[in-house]
Structure formats: C-alpha cells, structure tokens
Queue: 4 jobs
Job 1
Amino acid sequence: MDDYRDDLEVQHRRPTATRPLLGLTVLVVEDSRFACDAMRLLCLRSGARIRRADCIKSARRHLQVYRPSVAIIDLGLPDGSGAELIAELAHTSPRIDVLLGTSGDSFSEDVAMAAGADGFLAKPIESVLVFQSKILSALPPERQPNGPRLVSDDPVRPDPMAYRDDMAHAADVLDERGDGRMLDYLAQFLRGVAHSAGDGSLQKAAEDLAEARAKGRPLQAVIARVAALIQDRLSDRVAI
C-alpha cells in the first residue's frame, strides 16, 4: 500500500507542460520581501516549492537541514556578499543542481558567474518564461521535462504590502546605523528594492546616498531625504 502511495506521489509531482518545475524546491536567499514575493509567485506558477532565507547565516542553517534543487542568491545581503555563498555551494558535494545569482546591479552578473553560478536573474524578475528557462537550462538533462512548455508570460505583481515591509526594514536599519558598512548596505538594499518596484524617487535618493558615501561627502542631508521618503511609503502617502 505504501509503495502504491509513493508511486502516486511521484506521478503527481512529475513536471507538466504548464508546471515544468514540479518536484523542485527553490531556496531563495533574499533580504527583500518584495523581491521574495515575486519569487513566490514565479514558483507558484511553475510548480516549484519555495523556501526563503533573508541572510547568509539563515541560508546556512537551512542547508544544514535539507538540500534544495535550486538556490537563487541575492548578491547584496545584510551579513555579506551572496557571491561568497555561491562560491561555497559551488564547491560543496553533492552540489545543488542549479545555482543562480540575482541583483538589480548590472555589474553583478559577472561577479555571480565568477563565483560559480550557473546563471543570473536580473531584477526586477517578472517574467515566468525567463524564470523557468534559467532554471531548466541549468538542470541535468535527465531532470529536464520533455516536450513543449505552455507558458502564460503575464508579469507577476508582488504584493504592495511586501514593499511596505521592506520600508519598515529600511527604517530599522536607518535607526540602528552604527557604522558606514550599514549605510552602504542600506543604500544597496533601497536601490535594488526601489528599482524592482519602479520607485524612481527612492532609487535616486539611494543612489545619491551610495555616491555620497563613496566620495566622502557630508551625509546628513541625503540621509534625511532617504528617511523622509521611507516614512512617506510607510504612511501610505506614496503608491507604487
């Protein structure tokens, strides 16, 4: 009887034309709730299960317990570079089938690939077709589904409340900033989240903060502008 149930479960989890990632588990290492909600929707449409870690330390705890089929790792994380985790996993045996880097920064693809990634997803990640193709093309041939795929490529629309969660996280980081490294992280985080959400004014303010940090300029005015923009979004005075 148990063998019969196992056979039914295997058949149920076989990839289909509309859900080609059935049977795969995707670990998303991502500090943005907004970006992670986009990943959740992409996995849902594709048939994959998703697990999330918001930093390198959390990802390592997950990986001590289970081995995902796919790991999608953001390059900018609060406790280090995602490239470090990609390099670590690329040399772990048995290796995770698919390692993908992700970022909104154009230079990050080269960093991810040099670390050992199998591919790269540029943010914002909205296309189901691109998402599935990046994963399927990196799978071993025996794990790839046969036949054509039937894909509805309507872009995914993450929950705006997830963006508000990201603003709350940014506000906490700003309140607790203790050194330049956290300001650098905040600028990178806000730049990526705002880019994914199409929030041009916040993205520009984050870029100005990063530039001021890099060039040693006074920070008080630009930090005040960033803080005001964050509070506007937390108060629902700005819609995305």
Job 2
Amino acid sequence: MYGSEAWTITNKFKKKLEAIEMWFLRQMLKIPWKAKKTNERVLQEAQSERSLLHKIRKRQATFFGHIMRQEKLENVIITGMMTGRRRRGRQRERLTDGMAKWLGVGSVVAMLQKTKMRQEWRGLIANAMEQGT
C-alpha cells in the first residue's frame, strides 16, 4: 500500500483491487481454488472489518486534506491548476473527482473548501467510512 495516497481509483481499478484482496484472503485461509465457497463466506471466515479499498480511501483522504491545507507545489499539482494545454480526447478521471464522489460532497470546489477546516474534514472522512461506499 506504499504510495496508495496518489492512486486514482477508477471502476476498473476498483474491481482489480477487490479481486486481488479476495485472492489474498483465500490464500491466507488456505482455501483451494476448486472449493465452492462464495466470496461472502470467505469474508465471513476472515471477519475483516474493512476492505483494502476502504483503507486506501481513508489514507487518500487524510493525505489529501494534509496537502490541501498547505499552499505548496503539491497543492497546485493535485488540484490541476497548472498552466498549459489539455490533451485531446476524453479527460482522465482525477484524484479530486473520485474523492468528491466517495465523500458525497456535491462538487470538487466544495470539497476543497472543507479541507481547510480540519475537524469538519475528519467528520466527512468518518462519515464516508461508516457508509462504506
């Protein structure tokens, strides 16, 4: 999970994370791949509270809040406020877009304003973790 704070989690990447997490759990529990156990049963046996995706999202949110409270180069890079021209074609999904969707904030601008208030930002992260989205 080293460096996971900067990952952009798309739907395709999310499915891959969930699949590899399930593979890890089956390996740790020594469940053969021929065994007909559903993923729900494997999760019950593992009794894992939070998935790998939730842990990554929480790390991303805390790191994002830390970066946004500072007025440095990292802030400019992550928000995408750099000069220059955009590439042709469909724009890639950005870290800020995925974070706003996960936190349930209406827009990226509103989310950036909430990062300035540390207690409110922590409340947003805790609420998103409880909902488990």
Job 3
Amino acid sequence: MEQISTNQAPAAIGPYAQAVKIGQFVYTSGQIPLTADGTFVEGSIEDQITQVLANLDAVLTAAGCGRSDVVKATIFMTNLADFDKVNQAYGTFFGDHRPARSTVQVAGLPRGAQVEIELVAYQA
C-alpha cells in the first residue's frame, strides 16, 4: 500500500491519508471544502462543491491518474434539496465519463461542510 499526499489539496485533518494506492486502485479519502492551506470555504453549495472537486483533482493527479480513471464516487450531503446543484457541478467535472455513484444524505459533516466526496479510481 502506498500513501498518496499532495500539498495541492488540504492535509488530512485526522489520522488518515489523502489517498492510498493498492495495486492499480486508488482510494481517496473524503474531501470537504477546504483549500490547500486549510481554509474552510464558506458560502453556497456551488462554492463548496467546486472546492471539493478541485481537491479531488489534485489528489488524483498526485496518484498518477485522472478523472477518466474514476470508477466509483460516493457523495455525502447534508441537504438533498441541493442535489441538482451538486449533480450539475459533478456532471461538468466528469464530462462524458460516468463512474458508478452513490449519494447519501447525512446529519453532519466535518467543519460544518455541506458536501463531501470520496472516489475510487483504477489505473489500467
């Protein structure tokens, strides 16, 4: 197992890695709307999802893969009423690529985030 780390995304806020690589699989930890320097992105769900996706892009790059390698996404949201807004940003992020996905409403997320996403990628 190889731990993946980049300073282009926020450092882990607990005892875990930004991602781990096992064989050809990359598993990202959930990303919330923190900037690389650890600043929490306040504001709308659109502002938060934009930062989350930027963080995931940086972690994928550090692992040597990209969006087109993602096979599964899990989205955690505190309010499913924002589903369409998140779905729009997610669709723009992945373009024509369509990984499997689950979306779950949760009671709360770290730092009061409205959204958190984790990914699984496969490098052929």
Job 4
Amino acid sequence: MSKQALLYTEMVTTGAILFGKGDYLQFNEQEHPVSLQLGGSDPQALAQCARIAQQRGYDELNLNVGCPSDRVQNGRFGACLMAEPALVAECTQAMQDVVDIPVTVKCRIGIDEQDSYQFLTDFIGTVADAGVEQVTVHARKAWLQGLSPKQNREIPPLDYPRVYQLKRDFPHLTLAINGGITSFEAAHAHLEHVDGVMVGREAYSNPYMLAQVDSELFGDSAAVMSRIDVVEQMIPYIEQHLAAGGRLNHIARHMIGLFQGQAGGRQWRRHLSENAHKADAGIEVLTQALKLMQDTAQHVSKLQQQNSEQGS
C-alpha cells in the first residue's frame, strides 16, 4: 500500500538470529524500505547480526531500547537499557563499525522513577556521541515493574512536548515520534516539530490508512489503490506462501482490519476469523470473504439509494 513508509520488523533477538533454528530475517522484496529491529545488549553479538542483516538486504538496523516486558528485561535488553547509556553507545558503535546502512535507536522518554528530562537528554547525548543519527522516541515512559507491555502502551501519559524539546536541543538528529498517533491530521501536527512519525497499533488495526501515506506525507501523486486492489495484489503472495507449506492464517489474520468502518467489513472479519485458521484453508477463504463483503456493500448501497429517492 505504501512504497515510501519505512516498515519495521517485530523485535528479533540476537540469540534467535545466531542460534535459532528458523529464518528470522526473511522478508519480501515488496516490503522495502525495511528496518530490522534488534533486541540485545552484547556488542559482539549485535555486530554479528548487523553484518548478517546487511547481507540479507535490510535498509536499516534499529536497536530496541523501548520494550518493557519481563522477558526482555531478564535478557537485559529493551527499555531497561535506558539505564545503561554507555552500553547502548557501545552496542550501536559495534554495529556501525561493520555495516554501511544506518544504525538507529528506539527508546522511551524514561523508565520507572528515572523520568526527568535530564535523564532523557543524558541518554540521547551519549548515544548521539557514539554516531547514532536517527532516534525514534515513544512519548511515554515505561514502568518496568507493575505494568504489562500492553498497559505500558496505554497507561503512562503521553508527553509529546518533551519529544519536541528534544528535537530543539538535538537539531542535528533525525528524530521521530511514536505513541497514540491515529490520523494524518495528528501526523502533520507532529511533523511541525519533529522529522518523522511512527505509527504502530493504528496501522495494524486499520491497515488501509497506509494506502494514503505516500500521497499524504510524501507528495506522491500516484493513484491510491482500493481495498479490493489490496486483496487482489496479496493473492499471489498468499498462494506462494501456501505452496511453500505455510498456512492461510499466517497472513489472513493480519488482514482482518482491512475493511474497518466499511459496509460489509463485519462479514469480511467474521469469515476470515471463522475459517482462515483451519488446516486446509486455501485462497478460496479469502475470495469468499471478499464476495460476502461486496454483496453486503452492494445491498447497503441499494438501500441508501432507495431511501434517497423516497426522501426526494
């Protein structure tokens, strides 16, 4: 849906890449530009993964210093690393030493009781001195004790002005903002103060918003594809996945929100939810869901037209 938006992978740990049995770095060429989000705190292991990722064709490497889960803390990576800026600097330096692609950092505005602006600027300054030029800041602090990862995305209050101030104090950094951004109106407002906007949950629950990214934010005059176009263009990719032994639900479950707010959207969601997970589910489940959605949309359109004619 977008050729310009930078796509981030889920966080992949250095251990999974170096010692895991699966291929955690596979991506489709259509996903460019794409950034590999790494979790880890061992500079040597991160450097190894950085070198592999560049060989695999990634456009950027991003060190996660924002995830607050217990599992991540126990592995000494994620948000807890904000308390160790010198280690983060060492990690990013080790990665930069072996690759030519950008090495970036994603962090919070603070952790637990360490949430002063001075704490944040000390962290950013140390990382910037190590050569990092791009930082994405989730405008909430993280509570490492007492809140789940889900609660950490919702309960700590957003503080956008603090991120704006960070950009004023570090004008040479490319600074992006993240947290609670759900519309292009909000994105444009943030871009008055920072260089980029990261959208997470909204892009997942309402993925069709990505179809407007190129025209809204990058000035691309190309025609915006329809939701039906999106489904049709996904079909060859899904067929390839099924032929390789994958299951329909691996992909279809991420498409459930495609028709959010549209007539027939409920039928689309229901049919995929009830059928895509079945072991023998094939591409016909997707095409059936699309037909159910279209039939409902046409019925609603006819009713609206009749009501309009009666009203006139």
